[in-house]
Write a structure and sequence with these properties.
Radius of gyration: 29 Å
Organism: Sphenostylis stenocarpa
Keywords: Transferase, Ubl conjugation pathway
Protein name: U-box domain-containing protein
Pathway: Protein modification; protein ubiquitination
Order of helices and strands: EEHEHHHHHHHHHHHHHHHHHHHH
Catalytic activity: S-ubiquitinyl-[E2 ubiquitin-conjugating enzyme]-L-cysteine + [acceptor protein]-L-lysine = [E2 ubiquitin-conjugating enzyme]-L-cysteine + N(6)-ubiquitinyl-[acceptor protein]-L-lysine
Number of strands: 3
């Protein structure tokens, strides 16, 4: 708003004050003014349009959102923005911002400013902006800048946070193939280091990348690589255990890795069962349904079953999930897991009975849960009443 009057495009000036329009509104005559100026004009008893001098048959004023948006873009993009051709301006500005990021002479502060502008432009999912980002290959560049950095993470943390924020916004726009660069040894090492040493914002961005990597056939190998990187799996479990602010994102990342069957053994070895049990048992557990579904997927592994039964509160935690009015799917997953472990381990059966599973199953059968859930609940009841077997 502090631009020199000579630099303000005529379209962005209020006809009354000649200053930059802060809150553009339009009269019935089609003329646009700054709200404060036109309200003073009308309050003084004037019933005409200041520019056309036409009488106002309707004195109401309407916010001009389109012009407001163009002014915001001009303020962010600077002199490259041409209000007469905003699309060309956007492309030219993005090209300039990319050159800024690529330049070794550009200062860190200049690059941070460039990233802030990129972040703002990537919020607008119009087809033209999408095309600009794709044509200019922004995603590969940002991935290279984040994971190819050789300097201290602490020195670059603000840049990394902002770059990861931009990456998150660009991931839905096109091919995910550029993510495969992370498989490279040094870049993978940086990925793990950032997960270990980064801020919550950095960890959230990395979890988003893991989630995206599991969603495309182009990045199956990357998903496998991440899921079989022991240090990374360990760090994800640690976040689930200890960091409430990011634990939900870490559960999503764990679920993403678990979608690939070949990753599941690595997750179990990395302590996923213990981490999930701790998470579900905590007071703040907004991602509990997803966490229980991860356990259900892991039950195909003998090591996961043993880890659950050996966990001090594993079976009891699952029993507590059997009757959840707010989430029937969570109840079904919990019953399915108990069917597996109680069918194979007599001690799991005993722990479930001690934890009050019969009462919860009866409540579940009286609820509005699905027929599938009720069928599984009846199977578990039958199993629990059957003769014990040794295991």
């Amino acid at each position: 708003m502090n631009e020199s009057p000579n630099t303000i495009p005529p379209l962005f000036r209020c006809p009354i004050s000649l200053d930059l329009l802060e809150d553009p509104v339009t009269l019935c005559t089609g003329q646009t003014y700054d709200r404060s100026n036109i309200e003073k004009w009308l309050a003084a008893g004037n019933l005409t349009c200041p520019v056309t001098m036409q009488k106002l048959h309707d004195p109401s004023i309407v916010p001009n959102h389109t012009l407001r948006h163009l002014i915001d873009q001009w303020l962010q993009l600077g002199p490259l923005f041409d209000p007469a051709n905003p699309e060309t301006s956007t492309f030219d500005s993005l090209a300039s911002l990319k050159r800024n990021l690529e330049s070794h002479e550009s200062s860190l502060e200049n690059k941070l400013r460039a990233l802030r502008k990129i972040s703002l432009l990537s919020d607008e999912y119009c087809s033209f902006n999408k095309s600009c980002f794709l044509q200019l290959n922004f995603l590969p560049l940002l991935l290279k800048l984040v994971f190819g950095t050789q300097v201290s993470i602490n020195h670059m943390i603000n840049f990394i946070e902002l770059a990861l924020c931009c990456i998150q916004k660009l991931l839905p726009l096109g091919s995910l193939e550029p993510l495969n660069v992370i498989k490279d040894g040094s870049k993978l090492a940086t990925f793990v280091l950032l997960f270990e040493k980064g801020t919550n914002s950095v960890k959230t961005g990395l979890c988003c990348i893991i989630d995206s990597a599991s969603s495309s056939s182009e990045t199956v190998d990357l998903c496998y690589t991440l899921g079989n990187t022991h240090k990374l799996v360990h760090e994800i479990v640690q976040v689930v255990n200890q960091n409430y602010e990011v634990s939900g994102d870490a559960i999503k990342a764990m679920s993403a890795l678990c979608s690939l069957q070949s990753n599941r053994g690595s997750l179990v070895r990395g302590g996923a069962i213990d981490g999930i049990m701790r998470y579900i048992s905590s007071e703040r557990r907004n991602m509990t349904p997803l966490a229980v579904r991860i356990v259900e997927k892991l039950m195909g592994l003998e090591s996961a079953k043993v880890a659950l039964v050996n966990h001090p509160n594993g079976v009891q935690t699952l029993v507590n999930m059997v009757f959840r009015v707010s989430d029937q799917e969570c109840s079904e997953s919990a019953v399915e897991v108990l069917l597996v472990v109680c069918g194979e381990f007599e001690r799991a059966k005993d722990k479930a009975m001690e934890s009050g599973v019969l009462t919860r199953l009866l409540l579940l059968l009286q609820s509005q849960c699905s027929n599938t859930t009720k069928s599984k609940a009846r199977m578990l009841l039958k199993l629990l009443r059957s003769e014990p077997k040794q295991r």
